[in-house]
Amino acid sequence: MTPQKSFTWAIAWGVATALSFPAFAAGKSASQANIVLIMADDLGYGSLGCYGSTENKTPHLDHLAAGGMRFTDFHSNGPMCSPTRAALLTGRYPQRCAWVPDEELSPVFQEQRRKNPKQRWAWGLSPSEVTVGALLRSAGYRTALIGKWHLGYDFKFHPLNYGFDEFRGFVGGNVDYRTHFASHGEQQLDWWNGKKIANEAGYTTDLLTKYAAEFIAQNEDAPFFLFFSHAAPHDPWQSRDPAQTNSPVEIYREMIEGVDASVGAIVATLRTHGLEKNTLLLFCSDNGAAPPRGVPANGRLKGRKGSMHEGGHRVPLIASWPGVTTAGATNNATVMTMDFLPTFTNMAGATTPVRHVIDGIDLMPQLTGQATPPQRALHWLFGSDWAVRRGAWKLVQEGAKELSLVNVEQDLAETTNLAHVNPALVDELTRLHQQWIVSVGNK
Ligand SMILES: [Ca+2]
Q1: Is residue 123 helix, strand or coil?
Q2: What is the C-alpha to C-alpha distance for residues 363 and 341, in angstroms, rounded to an integer?
Q3: How many angstroms is it from 132 CA to the middle of ligand 1?
Q4: Kind of pairing between the strands at 329-331 and 69-71
Q5: What pTM does this model have?
Q6: What's the gap between Cα 132 and its chain centre?
Q7: Is residue 86 part of a domain?
Q8: 3 C-alpha to ligand 1 centroid (Å)
Q9: Is 8 helix (H, G, I), strand (E, B) or coil?
């Protein structure tokens, strides 16, 4: 089974505790604060100083957490890039989203696929999905994606078709940090300015930071939504200087520290333009780390990128909105990528289509420290692997291994399988997950 077939299969099944999207609330919505969401790619739970790393120096993110809110139980919707990004864009489980299969691709892309059957871009999020960009734009926001897209390479899946006014970056899963060519054998330039492919000199992290800062500066008078989607520290592990001979472990650390410096630059830009107090700034990762061998990038968590265990999807989330978020707070609520959309649209006063199903919840009560953690089950599904979490309990099915039942509040590293001790709970969570699969529909 090819990766995209496996992925298509995975997203063809779905679930969930769907919430009808409420009419937008009043309150914060009147302010139409700016929203900056910075997402690192494959950054692990243990990779920042404020999450316990002693190797990586991340003063800007540590400072952001000290002045804002650090979440300890935030999860990416998928253990891989694209499912998480679909959830971010739609506020829905990726399994509920509509995806366009290969045979519907445009002729030019069909031809590319025929020439290179190994290329992995022949699918995309359906343009029929209601996206956070489109909703915020309809509420008067200027919207931009700076960085990685990875929700379809065909031109019909271009980010500007999904509610973004501006796009700078790349549409594939990753690029060479210096040449900006797709780096997994496709040998195709993947560096865009709007709908034009145009290369330029520069290191990817630096260029994206420059464009993100420019977007903020150009829109200081209007409410804006900036989705700054970093490439780093996803491989290939490359330094700025091609002549540098540091080891992958050293370069990997430099790349994480480069993301940290970028966050510092964005915070400085907001401050320069007097926007700090009118901007919700969020920093997170799209899935667990896949680091060089021997690097404890996911902290104590079991598993890594791709896994249903915590190392696959429990990742950092830092939120900062001076005067709104409680400075220095730690939030242990179990929250997920799909929660961003309802949070943002409620802030903006955006309206969503009637009867449109959103799976996420508004996190503003969490950000203001006024709510108890939400009571709900959360689900993951990728290929034949799945996991369900309710309260402290998590049930995992990976490959042909036996079911694993763990109390993640007491056993974060998932060392002790309690499935044989509590078979009734195993059955209950299994049923819950099967019901979720039915509820998200079989697209
Ligand atoms: Ca990723």
Answers
A1: coil
A2: 9
A3: 19
A4: parallel
A5: 0.91
A6: 13
A7: yes
A8: 15
A9: helix
Question: Ligand 1 centroid vs 424 CA: distance in angstroms?
Answer: 35
Comparing C-alpha atoms, which of 39, 37, 40 is closest to residue 255? 40
- Asked if 338 and 91 count as a contact pair (C-beta separation under 8 A), the reply is yes
Please give the average pLDDT of every successive group of 10 residues along the chain, which has 443 residues.
35 30 36 94 98 98 98 98 97 93 60 62 85 98 97 90 98 94 75 96 98 98 97 96 94 98 98 97 98 96 98 98 93 97 97 94 93 89 95 96 97 98 98 96 61
Residue 125 is encoded by which pair of tokens?
């999020």
Exposed, middle or buried by CB within 10 Å (0-12, 13-18, 19+), for 42?
buried
Beta strand pairing call for 166-170 and 329-331 = unpaired
Residue among 97, 8, 9, 14 at smallest CA distance from 379:
14
d(CA 308, ligand 1 centre) in Å: 14
Rounded-to-10 torsion of CA 104, 106, 109, 115 = 70
* Residue 268 CA to ligand 1 centre (angstroms): 26
pLDDT in tens, 202-221: 999 999 999 999 999 999 99
Q: What is the DSSP letter of 204?
A: H
Rounded Cα gap, residues 121 and 173, in angstroms: 9
> In Å, how far from its chain's centre is CA 357?
20
Instruction: Tell how far the Cα of 7 is from the centroid of ligand 1, in angstroms.
Output: 14
Q: Amino acid identity, residue 327?
A: A
Asked whether residue 412 is assigned to any structural domain, the reply reads no
Which region, left, alpha or beta, applies to residue 31 given φ > 0 means left and ψ of -120 to 50 means alpha?
alpha
Residue 350 Cα to ligand 1 middle (Å): 28
Residue 186 tokens, joined: 């496709």
Both structure tokens of 146: 């700076």
Active site residues: 81, 150
Closest CA to 88 of 79, 72, 77, 74: 77
As a whole number of Å, the end-to-end CA separation of the chain is 19
CA angle 348, 19, 351 (to 5 degrees): 25
CATH code at position 320: 3.40.720.10
Q: Which domain holds residue 299?
A: 19-375
Strand bridging mode 393-397 / 385-390: antiparallel
**Residue 59: CA atoms inside 13 Å, Cβ hemisphere, count?**
3
Of 351, 324, 299, 326, nearest to 25 by C-alpha is 351
Does a structural domain hold residue 397? Answer: no
Task: Report if residue 407 sits inside a domain.
Answer: no
For the chain, what is the domain count?
1
Give me the DSSP letters along 29-65. Answer: GGT--EEEEEEESS--TTSSGGGT-SSS--HHHHHHH
The alpha carbon of 143 and the centre of ligand 1 are apart by a number of angstroms equal to: 22
Quick one: angle between helices 340-348 and 81-90, nearest 10?
Answer: 30
